[in-house]
Specification:
200 residues; mainly alpha; single chain; 10 helices; Hypothetical protein af1432; 62% helix
Length: 200
């Protein structure tokens, strides 16, 4: 398992994936989630840093293939957004595009298979397969608890920042790892204070 903390090794993947990050504010979401992933990996040295880092970097690039209006209406505002067709489609497209990016940047087929296993089902699979999967799932969610995450996502759900923070209050306890749950609780409290949500 790789434990290299130098994230510059992933720069070619960032560059290759960049064109696909212009959908659904993934150019904001993915870098913030990547940073959360690195923090979780520092606390879980037994996890595979390459697999987790590449999976979080590529997990949502499949949204690029879907119309933004459809993403919002079906993926965030429908009765069951996590089981909507667009959720499954963005995972499948993420696997397709992610495979192309990883092959083009020289990663082994073994790594590609492990990364794509995580991407395929990261939103829709009820239970994670293993620690790498749990870390990526938590990193994917932790950005929501930041000021930036609330500012972006409250519009997707058509609620106020206060309303979205209240939604996150229930979600913080269902993250997959103990450090993830602790980070979510701390970050949400700090974000509530910064956004004056005790008043607004």
């Amino acid at each position: 398992m790789t434990k290299i903390a130098d994230t510059a090794r992933y720069d070619p993947v960032w560059r290759a994936a960049e064109p696909y990050m212009r959908a659904r504010r993934n150019d904001v979401h993915i870098p913030l989630s990547f940073a959360w992933c690195q923090r979780l990996l520092d606390l879980h040295p037994e996890a595979d840093r390459d697999v987790c880092s590449l999976a979080i970097l590529l997990h949502d690039i499949g949204w690029y293939s879907i119309d933004m209006d459809r993403i919002i209406e079906e993926g965030f505002r429908s009765d069951n957004p996590l089981q909507s067709d667009v959720r499954y489609l963005h995972e499948a497209e993420g696997v397709r595009l992610g495979t192309e990016v990883l092959r083009a940047t020289g990663w082994s087929e073994e790594i590609i298979a492990q990364v794509c296993e995580i991407i395929d089902g990261h939103d829709t699979r009820p239970d994670p397969h293993h620690l790498n999967d749990r870390i990526v799932r938590d990193a994917d969610k932790l950005w929501r608890f930041e000021v930036t995450g609330i500012a972006v996502a409250c519009d997707w759900f058509a609620v106020t920042p206060h309303g979205y923070a209240d939604m996150l209050e229930a979600q913080k306890d269902i993250l997959e790892t103990a450090p993830g749950r602790e980070m979510a609780a701390r970050e949400l409290a700090a974000t509530r204070a910064k956004l004056m949500l005790h008043v607004l």
